[in-house]
Amino acid sequence: MSTHRPFEDWILDETALNPESSRLLHQHLDDCRDCRALADGWERARLTLTRSGMATPAPGLADRWLQRQALQAGSRSKGGWVVLLVSLGAALVGAGLTAWGLASLLGAPSEALQSLIRQLVTWSMWYRVSSDIVGAVSRTIPSGWVAGLGLALMIAWAGLIAVWLASLKRTAFQGVQS
Ligand SMILES: [Zn+2]
Predict the structure, then answer these.
(1) Cα–Cα distance, 143 to 67 (Å, whole number)
(2) CA count, 13 A, side-chain hemisphere, 91
(3) How remote is the CA of residue 9 from the centroid of ligand 1, in Å?
(4) Whether 137 contacts 149, CB under 8 Å
(5) Which of 12, 18, 145, 156 would disulfide-bridge 62, Cβ 3.0–4.6 Å?
(6) How far is the CA of 38 from the centre of ligand 1 (A)?
(7) Tell me: the pLDDT tens digits for 85-119?
(8) How far apart are CA 58 and CA 50, in angstroms?
(9) pTM of the predicted model as reported, rounded to 2 decimal places
């Protein structure tokens, strides 16, 4: 580790090296696979940042990037994004179901109560099914996923319950009116 010391710093240094340092660095990169891997990874990270619109990496990025590399060494690196995307997808499905339920209620107010009961039954069934799925899945996947799925389900169900309560209130009000 310590034999790479000046070179690691030079690879991650954001200011230009003097010609002598540059020559020594390239000499070391020719011989050292570890430092070459570091240089390649850092170059890719810089390119990605440049492409995504940031002209220069923020100060201290090299340190944070190194820390992240150390944390993720050998483990899954895209887990967090997958959890986020799955949660987002589930929340969107929940929102879609909510909108669909609301639309069908508004479209046929006379059947609202019947439809509410049917939906309540359906939703409670779905809730049990999804609980079973989460329970079964949680035994086979990492805990981060469970947290993401749980969050998504909570968001989806909070939306459904809110709409159901709103619909119930509306139906009760219409019943008094008619
Ligand atoms: Zn080295």
Answers:
(1) 22
(2) 13
(3) 11
(4) yes
(5) 12
(6) 9
(7) 888 888 888 888 777 777 766 666 666 666 667 77
(8) 11
(9) 0.31
Separation of 26 CA from ligand 1 center, angstroms?
10
Q: How far apart are CA 116 and CA 163, in angstroms?
A: 11
Ligand 1: centre distance to CA 59 (Å)? 24
Write out pLDDT tens, residues 70-80: 776 655 545 66
CA of 6 to the centre of ligand 1 (A): 9
- Name which of 14, 3, 4 is nearest 35 in CA terms: 4
Q: What is the reported pLDDT for 35?
A: 93
Contact predicate 156/93, CB 8 Å: yes
**Which are the contacts of 144, defined by CB distance < 8 A and separation ≥ 6?**
79, 80, 83
Instruction: Using the mean position of ligand 1's atoms as its centre, give its distance from the Cα of residue 28 in Å.
Output: 6
Rg (Cα) of the chain, in Å, rounded? 28
| Ligand 1 center–CA 4 separation, angstroms | 4
* DSSP structure string for 6-71: HHHHHHH--SPPPHHHHHHHHHHHHH-HHHHHHHHHHHHHHHHHHHTT-SSPPTTHHHHHHHHHHH
Name the residue type at position 77: S
33 CA to centre of ligand 1 in angstroms: 7
